[in-house]
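Allow me, if you will, to draw on your knowledge of protein folds for a short while. Thank you for your consideration; the sequence and its tokens are set out here:
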Amino acid sequence: MLKYKLTSVSIILGLLFAATALRGQPASVSSPQAKFTEGEKLAEIAERYFQDRLALDPIEGTQVTGDAKYEGELEIDISPRHRLKQRALYQRVQMEKATLNVKRLSPTDKLTLSLLEEEVKTRLGLLGFPGDLLPIDQYGGLPVDIAQFGSGQGIQPLKTVANYRNYLKRLNKLPAWTDQAIINMHVGIERGVVQPKILIERALPSLKALTTNDLDKSAFNLAIRNLPATFSVSDREKLSAEYREAINVRLVPAMSRLVEFLEKQYLPKCRTTSGIDAVPHGKAWYRYMVRYYTTTTLKPDQIHALGLKEVARIRGEMEKVKAVYKFNGSLNDFFKWHEALPASYPFKTEQEVLNAYAMLNKRIMAKLPDLFGRTPKAPLEIRAEPELTRSTASDHYSSPAADGSRPGVFYVVIEDPTKHPSNLMATLFIHEGQPGHHFHIALQQELSLPKFRQYGNITAFTEGWALYAETLGLEMGLYEDPNFYLGHLSDELLRAVRLVTDTGLHTMGWTREQTIQYMMETQGYSEHESQRYTERYMAAPGQALAYKIGSLKIQELRERARTKLGASFNLRDYHDLVLSDGALPLHLLEAKVDRWIAAQVPGKRQ
């Protein structure tokens, strides 16, 4: 990991920008920077940007660094003041980078500059849309996230007395966020920027659970119920009293205010429409989110058509699996028949599910050296999703801390072990664990890159890589088992269906009910599953497009390299190349792969 040494130029630039900000004039930075190379100036700009960005988002600071200075902090990130700070940061970076002589930068530095330019430009663009007026979705928003930290299994460390006091500081700042959320939603009502009613109805049970004064049931008191036995009696008593006061005096009243507002004032004003195009300027908002999440210039109608094409192709592959099982009947009938097989749900306990994932991980690890030249140093752990969020969460990956204090974690949602589908386990673990998210994210943090790149996330790359990684089950021999292969195709079909449903919901007037019906008919999903996915797409317009768009590009570039390089093509080298610079917008990834191909083509070697 590249450590940046802060030199005197940091102090000079900081004083210049502070002084000129008071006068309202842009700073001139050319003179103090004259002694430094252009690469050093860029490194300085990038490092200060990263540190200032984390100061504005201390939860991300906790997530990516593990630094104790972020543990007790909580920014009111939906406040107008905070958004002004964000805007000022992005505009400052734009001003600073304009002073660089690009011709004097190395190719690596030029890539860093391109990524920095794209990131701040995109984030500035996002501030032009009123996402701050929609602070609560079906997952419950920040209050549920913060309460979940009390499990000690997430990003909030809870091992020392200092950890516990820092978490309490963060909890005590939550009421200010909830009060701002109420203000924002009042503004949203006035401007017609409100959530679909169903999303708030889904959120209320989780939020109501946070209004209890019963400390044995309060999620805010979960940390105290799991106090380490090593704490002294005095510390245990003091912490318990401090948490009890915070819950009764500040947290429960704040959550009660939020729930009362949602039930009595917000719900009656919520919309019955499903797509973001129904709110003022929603069509432009969705087009922007499509560009943001896919890093392409694809239009919604093009993505919709691509989705329909992919759906047809994948269902064709599923017909082949149906033939392996010698099933006579429709594909959807086959899904129901296969689901009813005893082998589809072989587990009785949560631990049996976790053990099965552990065994699967061993099989995968034995195959990884054939596909990758470099593997992450950070370990990967498999944990069950905390009980508080099991009803709304999806299986997911949590990245390791930079200081090694927290491993990469695959969180598996186990609501009922007897209903945990075995056929999805291989493709799911590859995606969320390794070589999916863990390989990309953990390796990225180990690269000698500016920190904003080490800990950066470009959804089309991040999710595109993880979905592409699922296909590697073929190379690893996992999908020789038709049960696992059907699960893989089912998950791939889900991502193709997203191209259809997300664009349908947000540009074509599709209703929630229409989308649910399409998913049930196309994927054979239950009504409950289809509802859950549909509501996710309603809450996060465009995000679901990134998976398939990114995966298709990585597959396309792999086939391009294989075709042009012939026998000299090496899959290990290709994978290492794709991951070698961390997350990239798809157009920059394509340019990188094309340069790599050109350097190896006979007569063009460099």
About this structure: Confidence is low (pLDDT under 50) at residues 1-33. The two ends are 28 Å apart (CA to CA). The longest strand covers residues 380-384. Residues 11 and 447 are 27 Å apart (CA to CA).
